Amino acid sequence: MNLSLYDISFTLNNLNLSLKSSDDQPMPANPLKVIISDEQELVNDLLKKEKNAWKYFYNLHARDLIRICGRYISDREQIGDILQEGFVKMFQSIDKFEYRGDGSLRAWMTRIIINEALAYLRASTKNMEESVDPQEIPDTGDHDEPEVEAVPESVLYSMIQELPDGYRTVFNLFVFENMGHKEIAKRLGIAESSSASQFHRAKKILVKKITDYKNSNKGGYGR
């Protein structure tokens, strides 16, 4: 059965979109009992706009994409809206997708979700430049690096979410998307020096948060 754009919007609105943490019961990978042996086969079915293939695709990847979107957006309701918009964009542009082996589909859909998140931030955030008084930045060493291995992944995720919008966005693009400050500046409409400065200050805040976490045995997280 082929799927229309109306169908994909209706389907996304009615699927059980869970925004709980990754520690909760995971979303079933294949609730529709669809058997798709490899990614290439899935792409072929998506190109045909097969309804079950799109539902399978959604349920397979929604939780990961929620988490990726959550790196940039703190509002859970907005994350759901961005996820829906992202999947509609995927449905509309799947015919332009070029399969280049395992992992290329994930890279493509991740890029779309991040683009949607950045578009929302640009529209909703008045200024992506410095958003914190420099005097409020923790006085840590200039060369200190966050000891990310010292905290559980879920705690680190929460710490990153607590960063100011600009700092959080720059940090995520630099660390997780491997973007340089020149590209980040272009994507966010800020100066390259501002990108570098916000990344540096984001690291200082994380160093302080992680130090507090270690010294106070959870530091208020996970209690």
TrEMBL record:
Keyword Transcription regulation on entry: yes
Annotated ranges, domain RNA polymerase sigma-70 region: 58-124
Domain RNA polymerase sigma factor 70 region 4 type span(s) in chain numbering: 156-205
Keywords associated with the record: Sigma factor, Transcription, Transcription regulation
InterPro entries named in the record: RNA_pol_sigma-70-like, RNA_pol_sigma-70_dom, RNA_pol_sigma70_r2, RNA_pol_sigma70_r4_t2, RNA_pol_sigma_r2, RNA_pol_sigma_r3/r4-like, WH-like_DNA-bd_sf
Family annotation (PANTHER family): RNA POLYMERASE ECF-TYPE SIGMA FACTO, RNA POLYMERASE SIGMA-70 FACTOR ECF SUBFAMILY
Family the UniProt entry places it in: Belongs to the sigma-70 factor family. ECF subfamily.
Record-linked NCBIfam families: sigma70-ECF
Designated name of the protein: RNA polymerase sigma factor (Sigma-70 family)
Species in which this protein is naturally found: Chryseobacterium camelliae
